[in-house]
Amino acid sequence: MVKIGYLGPRGTFTKLAVDTAFNGEDKLAFNTIPECIDAVNNEEIEIGVVPLENAIEGTVQLTVDYLVHQVRLPIIAEIVVPIEQHLLVSPDFNGSLSELAEVHSHSHAIAQCHQYLHKHLPEAAINFTSSTGKAAEVVSKTGKKIAAIGNKLAAAEYGLKIYQENIHDYPNNHTRFAVLAKQREDVRIKHEQDGEKTTLLITLPSDYAGALHQVLSAFSWRKMNLSKIESRPMKTGLGNYFFIVDVNQPYDAVLFPGVKAELEALGCNVTVLGTYPVYQMKL
Asked: What are the Prephenate dehydratase domain coordinates in residue numbering (predicted)?
């Protein structure tokens, strides 16, 4: 049986993505994103699923930086899941919002609910956890007058009550999850795909004026649609960056080799991080 790892514990949005995308495979929780990625690299599991980007809070930088600087695993698929954040409390809590002294959740979930917290829980202490599932676990093991931000799966897994549904600030809240595997044939997602994408890692020459403009031009004149371009520090000194570029089409034998050759002629380095199907999930 194929083993699938995810950012745990039970009740995280990553677990929700895994349950939605896969059937009865063996599913293992990991405490951190690096632990999950390392487990795939060390062949302890066949597949790892980690958060990549949220529509409100942007890139999950730990995932991108770890894949670039530490472990180069190919992205085999992308799962896009709608995110619904709820305020979760102990089942025997029947008080008002003003009685909640603490709110626990992952930093991204807290940020996604900033306006709600500012308006309704201005006096509550904010406590960051490694995941929304961990926040729900904390509430289940602690006192009555604390809350977690998480999903319905977390509420069910830890026996919590949903005090208020959909407290995120913006309705169109989705998260992209990267499916990582050494063998593409290990990944069998039980849905029809909604498109294909290729992700490139591009580093620019430090002494070439207008290099970024010419990078974009290499895609533009070939009419290749970029859905994302983002810079991240190379960690080799101030001013040194790499770029992550998402192209909304699969890698082919004509356009992409042409882009790569053109960029390398400018002194850029180009690495394909993955060419993969995209799956839009409905909960």
From this structure: 3-182
